[in-house]
Amino acid sequence: MANLNIKVTKINESKLSGLDWNNLPFGKNFSDHMFVADYINGEWTNLQIIPYQNISISPANAALHYGQSIFEGVKAYRLANGDAAIFRLEDNFKRFNRSAERLMMPKIPAEVFVEGTKQLVALDQDWIPNKENHSLYIRPFMFALDEVIGVKPSDSYKFMVLLSPTGPYYPKPMRIYVEEQYVRAVPGGVGYTKVAGNYASSLYAAKVAKDKGFDQVLWMDAIEHKYVQEMGTMNAFFIIGNKAITPGLEDGTILEGVTRNSVIQILKEMGLTVEERNLSIDEILEAYKSGELKEAFGTGTAATISRIQELVYEDFSMTFDCDKWEVSPEVTKRIDDIRYGRVDDRYNWLVTV
Ligand SMILES: *Cc1c(COP(=O)(O)O)cnc(C)c1O
């Protein structure tokens, strides 16, 4: 077993006083410390918390050339009682290992991923904003460390955790373009993993859509270009009549969002029927035209719930009056009440540090 003592080296002077709490764009500011661990000779070793700093790697680093690189996104919140808590960390840990397995990377023990993250958040907990819709974004990631140019699984890896205080991600409702030409994931591929390359390959379609005035694309299945999948880093939900429908996970093309799972549980608690299944764009269009399509939104750790104000498929535009919606604001409220510790944590979602 690895040596799990975490060696802590603290920063001389905190950077906290230089932080502008009123302007916290996503992913731009990093806390004082970071967690680092190495996988060498089949063991996790060198577990450390050190000041946030640049790292040095070989130009022949295998991850740079062939992309063995995975990540997670988690958040910590300041609770009403003053405690600091991480939301559903265990679920992100499990998903991280599913990504690792698919990319021929070593699984990481809970003692490294969970304990390392908790200790880091505990040390830098003054970086958790004490403000509605704000949080401390946690970015665990792992990449190949071998110094070799050749397509094969690396023998050595580096695991790290960064912390970034963050404000609201998508403050405004989104305009979404239903993507017919480019695809994100295919059955048998890596769509269900948080592998870095998935995001690189999504940039082009996003740019084309942005040039037309959209915020994101809604991906469709790669085979028939008929069933909707997800958006950017968000799972998709449609409220049709008194049902909530979200694409199913069976064919491995969709990321199994932790927020998606939280939202499903809350929707059921609110009395809605939740269906996880194939949902065609034609069914969405029909529901819109008959007035049954009430709400459409994305879910993800970064933004929690992002409402869709316009959904465009070919030449047809579906527009929504988001201010009149009832379901998604209630879901947001119920999840936020748990996350900020204003109600009982009835699903055991919080891990206090
Ligand atoms: C991270 C991500 C999501 C959302 O997952 P959460 O666990 O809810 O943050 C959805 N889709 C993709 C492609 C993602 O990368």
From TrEMBL:
InterPro entries recorded for this chain? Aminotrans_IV, Aminotrans_IV_CS, Aminotransferase-like, B_amino_transII, BCAT-like_C, BCAT-like_N, BCAT_family
Report the catalytic activity.
L-isoleucine + 2-oxoglutarate = (S)-3-methyl-2-oxopentanoate + L-glutamate; L-valine + 2-oxoglutarate = 3-methyl-2-oxobutanoate + L-glutamate; L-leucine + 2-oxoglutarate = 4-methyl-2-oxopentanoate + L-glutamate
Keywords assigned: Amino-acid biosynthesis, Aminotransferase, Branched-chain amino acid biosynthesis, Pyridoxal phosphate, Transferase
What's the EC number here?
A: 2.6.1.42
Report the domain of life of the source organism. Answer: Bacteria
* Pathway listed: Amino-acid biosynthesis; L-leucine biosynthesis; L-leucine from 3-methyl-2-oxobutanoate: step 4/4; Amino-acid biosynthesis; L-isoleucine biosynthesis; L-isoleucine from 2-oxobutanoate: step 4/4; Amino-acid biosynthesis; L-valine biosynthesis; L-valine from pyruvate: step 4/4
The broad enzyme category this protein falls into is transferase
Name the coenzymes or cofactors required: pyridoxal 5'-phosphate
Q: Which GO terms describe its molecular function?
A: branched-chain-amino-acid transaminase activity
Which family is this protein grouped under? Answer: Belongs to the class-IV pyridoxal-phosphate-dependent aminotransferase family.
Q: What does this protein do?
A: Acts on leucine, isoleucine and valine.
Output this protein's name: Branched-chain-amino-acid aminotransferase
Source taxonomy: Bacteria, Pseudomonadati, Bacteroidota, Chitinophagia, Chitinophagales
